[in-house]
Amino acid sequence: MQLTDAQRLDWLRLIRTEGVGPRSFRALINRFGGAAAALEALPALARRQGRPAVLFTQAQAEDEVAALDRIGGRLIAAGEVDYPRLLHRTDAAPPLLALRGAPILNRPAVAVVGSRNASTAGLAFAERLTRGLGESGLTIVSGLARGIDVRAHRASLSTGTVAVMAGGQDRIYPASHAALVDAILGEGGAVLAEMPMGWEPRGRDFPRRNRIISGLSYGTIVVEAARRSGSLITARFALDQNREVFAVPGSPLDPRAEGTNDLIRQGATLVSDVSHVLDVLGPIIEGGPEAEAAPARGGPDLAEQPDFWDEIDLDAYLPNSAPPHAPRGRPDTATDEIGFDPPEPADDRARIIALLGPCPVGTDELARCAGVGARVVQSVLLELELDGRIERHGSGTVSLVSR
């Protein structure tokens, strides 16, 4: 399928119209045979439900397409050649995606996600794992967040990475990652967004983004995640989409490992080496996007949450046309674990302490992750040692003493 320019504008108008989300979009297209006809029918449908029809105008659609074109982006529609086939097979797949960069969305991919407040050990392992997976031919998908996401993107720049944004293409979050976006685009990677140009991400937009991250990928790897974690939502989506879930084990003394350890206990594949991922995904990838997926296993214990989209209820008017309900996500919230990045630690000492954990790490790696010199690290470590907060090990490694 290839939309004409006029059809693409109609699709954009329909999905941007108030009360229309991925589920109702598909129902309307199936019922009326096209977006133009659905737009004509919407006012009458809305009146039956006692709500006004606020249609996205032709001028608004043209302005959005022009704004996206000015920054080198374009809209790809579900069913078109560049639209990711794996994502297309999921419930509530976005009808339209804004794409900047190379059309690499149909290469075999794996998602790598994890804590925004990652430890030095977690960052180092994520880099090693991601680089090995990239060198083995897998594209790396992640969410451009601080911590594990950024380390995964940077480690796979030369082999191919896809960044999925929670806001519009012109609203990079956090703004400090604009240079990384430029590097991704410059190295032949891709940047995706579901939301319109100018859209500032809200709390509920991060889970929406997460179902795209897992939907693009044959499997999702979680590296460090607390029990209340946006990374666990990505894992839940992966399970709902019949994709593989992998988890990196961590110290039971580190709260950042509680979520990943729980995933392993619930049946996720333990990962401590690149081969652990390749052994599972190799046969699945050989089957291609159309291969039958394995039955989903039990997911993490997440409570039922409100729908992402405030969609008009079409069931009474469009019988037998509505697709299954979309996955459920978290409501608006500005917590670190669910979406928004926490503020950067105010000083070098706080940054170094945040990177320490129960697992021993080398001082050179600690300095690299903290972005400070070796002398600064040694000074802070001496202060922490005198305070009884760290333990020194062989080969110049240190760990935080659990209290």
Can you tell me about this structure?
Residues 319-346 are annotated as: Disordered. It comes from Methylobacterium longum. It holds the Pfam family WHD_DprA. InterPro entries: DprA (IPR003488), DprA_WH (IPR041614), DrpA_SLOG (IPR057666), WH-like_DNA-bd_sf (IPR036388). Belongs to the DprA/Smf family. With 403 residues, the protein is of the alpha/beta class. Among the domains are: 87-287, Rossmann fold (3-Layer(aba) Sandwich); 348-400, Arc Repressor Mutant, subunit A (Orthogonal Bundle), CATH 1.10.10. It contains 15 helices and twelve strands. It has helices at 5-16, 22-32, 35-48, 58-70, 85-88, 120-135, 148-155, 178-186, 205-215, 230-240, 258-265, 274-287, 348-355, 363-370, 374-386, and strands at residues 73-77, 96-101, 109-114, 139-142, 161-165, 190-193, 219-223, 244-248, 269-270, 361-362, 390-392, 397-400. The strands form two sheets. It has a nine-stranded mixed sheet, sandwiched between helices. Strand 5 (161-165), helix 8 and strand 6 form a beta-alpha-beta unit. The longest helix is centred in the N-terminal third of the chain and has 16 residues, at 120-135. Residues 292-306 and 315-337 have low confidence and may be disordered.
Main sheet specs: 9 strands, mixed
Q: Outline, from the CA principal axes?
A: elongated
Strand arrangement in the largest pleated sheet: 1-2-6-5-4-3-7-8-9
Please identify the top-level CATH class of the domain at 87-287. Alpha Beta
Distance between the termini: 60 Å
- Structural class by secondary-structure content: alpha/beta
Strand content: 5-15%
* Total strand segments: 12
User: What's the alpha carbon Rg, rounded to whole Å?
Assistant: 22 Å
- CATH architecture grouping of the domain at 87-287: 3-Layer(aba) Sandwich
- Give the count of helical stretches: 15
- Stretches where pLDDT falls below 50 for ≥5 residues? 292-306, 315-337
> Average pLDDT, to the nearest integer?
85
Q: What is the chain-wise order of helices and strands? A: HHHHEHEEHEHEHEHEHEHEHHEHHEE
CATH fold description of the domain at 87-287: Rossmann fold
Helix content: 25-40%
